[in-house]
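pinned: reference chain
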Amino acid sequence: MRIKDLAIGMTVRYKNQKWKGTVVGIGREEIRVVFEGDGATEYIDPMFLRPF
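pinned: its structure tokens
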């Protein structure tokens, strides 16, 4: 995905995995995502994210 396609609060998944996360921050090159289950906050390149 492109950064301009993302919004805070949007539900996304990582690559082709079933991991569901919520966008909580948008940086210049990385997206901050909190994943359900373990509650981990990850900084991810937007090219690895897909809409859920």
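why pinned: The mean pLDDT is 91. The beta strands are 11-14, 20-26, 31-35, 41-44, 49-51.
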